[in-house]
Fold this sequence. Notes:
By secondary structure, the chain is mainly β.
Amino acid sequence: MSSFEEAETEETVTCLHMTFYHPCQKEKMMFRCLNFGKREQVRADEMVKFGRDSNICCYNLMDTRVSRIQFSLQFYRKLNSSEYFFEIKNLSKRTKLIVDQTELGYLNKIDLPWKCIICFGNYQILAEIQEGESVDYFETHLHLAEGPILQERSLPSLQPTPENGISSSIFSQNKSPMEIDENE
Length: 184
């Protein structure tokens, strides 16, 4: 047998691609501690934390408006499934975390969609999961966006646009939906 036939089967690795944007990133350099463009291995049992406290967080954002621990990501596998997922949890008591259109308060968590935008304050992070098979670790691959992610991707804004063109602010006064007869 050749060495090729005897070689161990190559295992693919789940990779979480994250593209970061902030309107003041050039002036304030809040991403200077992030390692862009290089894949980094993370043990599967580690909880990955993002925030400004370098003693606790793996990924530091150098901004006093960011919580000491802003949010965390946990790699896991659902019971009776071979698929791997990430769970995102808001760890900030002051700032809500928006994942696509879902608002997370303090200690709220959800499964991270395969492709989504994470927002808090003026931060926008595009997260994309590349599937893999490894059970021991996953990888992160960080990128820096040149412009706003929400505008670049032509994603809908977080505020719904009514069909009649009337601003939703006048409807926010009513607590419940109001039914109107078509003939009126």
